[in-house]
Amino acid sequence: MPLRLLHTGCLCLLLAVFSLHAAAAPKPAARTALVIGNAKYEAAVGPLRNTVNDAKAVAKTLRDLGFAVIEKHDVTRDQLLKAVVEFRATLTDAEVGLFYYAGHGISVAGSNYLLPVKSGYTSEGADDVTLRLLAETKLFNVEQAVADMKSAGARCNLVILDACRTTAVARTGRTRDATNPGGLSEMKPPAGSLIAFATDAGQTALDGDGTNGLYTEELLKHLRTPGLTVEQVFKRTRAGVLERSNGGQIPAEYSRLVGEDIFLAGQAPAPPALTTEPAPMPPPAAPPEPALPSLRGIAKQASAGKARECVEALQQYAKAKGPGAYSAEPIGVLLEKVKEDLKEATTASPSVDAAAVTCELILHALRDCLPPDHEQKIPFTAKALNRRGDALLLLGRAEEALDAYNAALPLTPEDSYILYNRGRAHLALGKTTEAKADFTEAASSKYKQLKARRLAEEALAKLK
């Protein structure tokens, strides 16, 4: 799944073109959008599979929601500049201006750039100054687009970037990434604006196995839902992506929206009015539901270490009652059981194998039983992934352990134990340079876990 990355246009050029088109500017619509999907990149950058599909689906949904949409696919830099000029002319006094981009993007010298097709941009052999000059002349700067939208006068500006922010090492042809290993940089929107990224720093925006990418597929669901404010649309999108990626992709937003709430799909429908007509006869009584497991019984199963029975009972309860905070306590107990089982383990054993299975069951319980916005959702997921990695490492499955640590680290980046453990996985795979880098970082005084720092220092000493 290739990864997606970010550009700037020359300000003087944009202002000049804007002035030439001002006289022909169309009458502003209440809602207006520019939707870009770039897929047919040159081989050096890497073509993408679903980005044009994503742009088409977003454009259709926005039109259904009353947006006037400018839709472009596989644009060069000049075509992108022209589209932005056309878009800017529609923003004056608009209620909402929305810019959506699906494709590659990079960060250069702290600024984010979109990659047009046929850009000719390459980072090979270039120093920092040259890279910045190349980016300014061959790519498109997102910060400039945000500034242009703000100055054009729309009351609410939304910028949605389904672009990757991970390392070039992770390129597989299914992720959205180009050649820059640094990913995208955080952005500070002006007042009245919101900037949404498909994934947080250092993660991968998944292209998906179907017609659309993972982020856009979730976004489309909630854009169409009546009664959701703009902020709720992105919050629910983040929860859906987090759940479906098992914690591996966490969208991020940077918001400075002001004023009244905006409902993109309209207010929720009002409840039906009361009538004086006689109530219909009740339907025949349904057969009684099978008895639900009790929460006390679930807690006892967790305390006894009966992970499979506990998780199956939690899932049955959640199916009937919905996800809830009730699942946090038994999941926490199971996590502590795994910790105890692994505490003294030094080699593969049946108990270590059982710990790995328990962690997998816990991840299923977190997905099915704990609400997406529960305060323990992310820390519990990180712990389950980290402890699963520990068990897999003891079982000699270092590649799988490394995957688990890589998924855990973005969830709790302040946890130096995960860094230290990832270093052990790298070492087991013979990747000494990567192991040394992880141990060095884990030993840093900025982390609070003193024991993890000491273990990392000891590991570094053994590598010398």
From TrEMBL:
Region (Disordered): 268-287
Domain Caspase family p20: 29-168
TPR repeats: 382-415
InterPro entries listed in its UniProt record: Caspase-like_dom_sf, Caspase-related_regulators, Pept_C14_caspase, Pept_C14_p20, TPR-like_helical_dom_sf, TPR_rpt
Keyword set, alphabetical order: Signal, TPR repeat
Signal peptide location: 1-22
Organism superkingdom: Bacteria
SMART domains (alphabetical): TPR
PANTHER family for this protein: MUCOSA ASSOCIATED LYMPHOID TISSUE LYMPHOMA TRANSLOCATION PROTEIN 1/PARACASPASE (PTHR22576), MUCOSA-ASSOCIATED LYMPHOID TISSUE LYMPHOMA TRANSLOCATION PROTEIN 1 (PTHR22576:SF37)
Entry protein name: Caspase family protein
Organism: Prosthecobacter fluviatilis
